[in-house]
């Protein structure tokens, strides 16, 4: 596992074959960071330069092509907490409570120093500043622990800046509106800042015997002061403020900084710190080992055998990235007083609902259930299910992306029967949410623009109908199912594609091959299997010439020409993530095998530039995990599609069981960029068995996968007849057996 994968601009071998025809319009950078994280934990910690979008690294904000650099080198002005993972287009993003070890005067705060000798592991990050200070970070679920090793100096210091927030780009700063800081003596301090409507509290302990501690404001020390209060802060009145610990340091002396965080006040922040760090003067190694063990448990829930070392590293890192977000702060909601799960950094459902949420449901079902409970509570408190939910007041800042996506996860959870939710209450919110925003127009007219929201809402009606029918509300289920059939209003029968409309980060071709609840009717609408496959072949570039990817600052004409290709965007963008599996519904799983194989081979690699685009809170990495296993979840349908896997054997630990995918037959070389000339041939399923019984269909019920079993796939170098007759289920056709 390598946390540096995805932290730099895309740097992959030039693609060959099918993958060379795909065109990438969005930023060619993973937007991940190498900082310390805990599985689905509340806190992260990383070096801070102010760069877009994580606060780590060198890049400026960009929306297409190769990212531009803000800095010539990796650098940091300190170390912050709460970073996003892999998203883009968010100008302000956390990076609160900056801790800066210094051997310079306080006037030099905000200077950035080059970083050397970086190390990143699960739950651990370290680097040496140009000043000679070695900096190590680790985190627990609600705490962070820093350890600084100083060179000899007469006046070393550790500075905590509570006013820091956001990014060092235009309009990227997050300004606290209220704050308080208190120095409590004996190496202890606490404070609260209200950022974007959320009160973030920190309680900290600094193990620095003999050092002085003071408050500071506007880079001036407040001798003898014990408390700062700011009742109203504005952009024009903000001056930096915080705490400082200073004293002489001998060469090699370490200073440990322990920080407990809470969204419910300093007392709870202190309790969080004591629970995870104990009462001793040193907790770094304890917290690091505990988090490392927690990562080992989570990453061990999916195991693979075979493949190249590079491919296993990419896979392990993808699984790691898939388990960083959302953030869970149990009993930490600042918006309602009751205990229970509180999930934030659901950023955004548009990115994660197809791939990451089904992965969480499979391997960390208890957390997947907590997420749904939290989202239902958000809907109850704020009036709607969020499309994106940050650590900020207000649930729905991403409504333009999509509509009613939580319904897919709720439908899947109900079908699995393992979630102890109040389903009657959940159904109330599912139904109510269908009428918000674009949903009102859909309810009245059966179609809405942007046209993709018509597909979202029709599909959400289908998902809600399944829950209503299972709860014996037949009248409601019938009405919802009738409205779900209005997905046809989104399509132009003359072209078999979506109607002309506005499209969020894509075009009508990118959105036209979504896996709907009635794919049989969808294929008929396109003119039948042959016409549907012909359109897919064109979309994926069969027979097309290689294309040139956008460079730095691509001009509008270049981007327009690229969009005019109407081509698969090669995992650089979310809308067409599921499109390779559309072939399954037309009886051509061999085509799915070719497209997925090309993506796994050419779109991912080792090193900082190993991702083709934004990782998007683990949505892209989750795609990679599923594709490598030879499975793809159809969100909302409690269904998995089967394809040739990338590894000889894989074990998915699902709750109390294990689902095993094993292969036999012809395999010349492992999939991976370090195979012979970097492009081994694709493999095709020749036949399949499930628990020793023949499997002729290309799909599995999700209950089967979650229950556990053995899927054996015999592979070969040429397409076969397997899966051509028995199609995955569609609403207008009975399921194949």
Automatic annotation (TrEMBL):
Keywords: Glycosidase, Hydrolase. It comes from the Bacteria. Residues 717-737 are annotated as: Disordered. Residues 268-716 form the Glycosyl hydrolase family domain. GO terms for molecular function: hydrolase activity, acting on glycosyl bonds. It is an enzyme of class 3 (hydrolase). InterPro entries: 6-hairpin_glycosidase_sf (IPR008928), GH-type_carb-bd (IPR014718), GH92_a_mannosidase_put (IPR005887), GH92_N (IPR041371), Glyco_hydro_92 (IPR012939), PNGase (IPR050883). Residues 2-262 form the Glycosyl hydrolase family 92 N-terminal domain. This is GH92 family glycosyl hydrolase. It comes from Nonomuraea bangladeshensis.
């Amino acid at each position: 596992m390598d946390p540096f994968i995805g932290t730099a601009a895309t740097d992959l071998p030039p693609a060959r074959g099918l993958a060379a025809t795909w065109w990438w319009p969005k930023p060619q950078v993973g937007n991940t960071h190498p900082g310390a994280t805990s599985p689905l934990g509340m806190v992260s910690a990383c070096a801070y330069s102010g760069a877009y979008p994580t606060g780590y690294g060198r890049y400026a904000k960009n929306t297409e092509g190769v990212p531009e650099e803000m800095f010539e080198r990796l650098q940091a002005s300190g170390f912050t907490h709460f970073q996003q993972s892999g998203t883009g287009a968010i100008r302000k993003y956390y990076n609160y409570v900056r801790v800066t070890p210094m051997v310079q005067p306080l006037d030099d705060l905000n200077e950035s120093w080059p970083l050397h000798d970086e190390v990143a592991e699960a739950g651990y990050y370290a680097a040496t500043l140009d000043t000679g200070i070695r900096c190590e970070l680790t985190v627990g679920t609600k705490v962070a622990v820093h350890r600084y090793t100083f060179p000899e100096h007469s006046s070393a210091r550790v500075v905590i800046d509570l006013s820091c927030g956001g990014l060092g780009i235009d309009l990227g700063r997050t300004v606290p509106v209220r704050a308080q800081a208190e120095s409590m003596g004996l190496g202890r301090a606490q404070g609260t800042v209200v950022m974007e409507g959320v009160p973030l509290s920190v309680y900290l302990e600094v193990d620095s015997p003999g050092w002085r501690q003071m408050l500071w404001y506007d880079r001036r020390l407040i001798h003898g002061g014990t408390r700062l209060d700011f009742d109203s802060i504005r952009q024009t009145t903000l001056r930096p403020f915080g705490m400082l610990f200073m004293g002489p340091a001998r060469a090699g002396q370490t200073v440990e900084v322990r920080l407990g965080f809470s969204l419910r006040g300093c007392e709870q922040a202190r309790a969080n710190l004591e629970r995870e760090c104990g009462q001793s003067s040193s907790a770094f190694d304890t917290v690091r080992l505990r988090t490392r063990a927690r990562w080992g448990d989570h990453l061990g829930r999916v195991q693979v055998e075979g493949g190249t070392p590079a491919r296993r590293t990419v896979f392990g890192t993808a699984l790691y990235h898939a388990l960083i977000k959302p953030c869970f702060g149990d009993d930490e909601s600042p918006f309602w007083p009751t205990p229970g799960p509180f999930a934030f950094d659901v950023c955004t459902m548009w990115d994660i609902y197809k791939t990451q949420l089904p992965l969480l449901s499979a391997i960390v079902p208890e957390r997947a259930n907590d997420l749904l409970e939290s989202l239902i509570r958000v809907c109850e408190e704020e009036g709607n299910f969020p499309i994106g939910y940050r650590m900020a007041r207000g649930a729905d800042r991403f409504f333009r992306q999509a509509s009613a996506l939580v319904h897919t996860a709720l439908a899947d959870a109900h079908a699995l029967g393992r979630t102890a939710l109040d389903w009657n209450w959940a159904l109330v919110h599912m139904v109510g949410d269908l009428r918000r925003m674009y949903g009102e127009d859909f309810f009245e007219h059966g179609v809405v623009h942007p046209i993709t929201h018509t597909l979202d809402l029709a599909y959400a009606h289908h998902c809600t109908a399944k829950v209503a029918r299972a709860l014996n509300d037949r009248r409601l289920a019938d009405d919802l199912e009738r409205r779900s059939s209005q997905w046809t209003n989104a399509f132009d029968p003359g072209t078999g594609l979506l109607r002309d409309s506005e499209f969020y980060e894509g075009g009508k071709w990118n959105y036209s091959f979504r896996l709907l609840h009635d794919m049989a009717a969808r294929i008929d609408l396109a003119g039948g299997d042959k016409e549907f496959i012909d359109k897919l072949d064109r979309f994926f570039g069969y027979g097309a010439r290689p294309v040139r990817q956008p460079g730095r600052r691509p001009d509008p004409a270049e981007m327009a020409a690229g969009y005019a290709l109407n081509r698969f965007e090669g995992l650089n963008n979310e809308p067409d993530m599921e499109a390779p599996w559309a072939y399954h519904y037309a009886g051509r799983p061999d085509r799915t095998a070719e497209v997925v194989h090309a993506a796994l081979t050419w779109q991912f690699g080792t090193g900082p530039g190993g991702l083709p685009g934004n990782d998007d809170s683990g949505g892209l990495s989750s795609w990679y995990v599923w594709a490598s296993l030879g499975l793809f979840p159809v969100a909302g349908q409690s269904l998995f599609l089967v394809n040739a896997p990338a590894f000889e054997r894989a074990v998915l630990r699902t709750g109390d069981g294990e689902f095993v995918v094993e292969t036999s037959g012809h395999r010349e070389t492992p999939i991976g960029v370090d195979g012979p000339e970097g492009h081994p041939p694709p493999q095709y399923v020749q036949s399949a068995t499930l628990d020793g019984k023949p499997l002729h269909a290309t799909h599995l019920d999700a209950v089967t996968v979650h229950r556990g079993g053995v899927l054996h796939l015999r592979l070969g170098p040429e397409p076969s007849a397997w899966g051509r007759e028995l199609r995955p289920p569609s609403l207008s056709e009975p399921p194949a057996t």
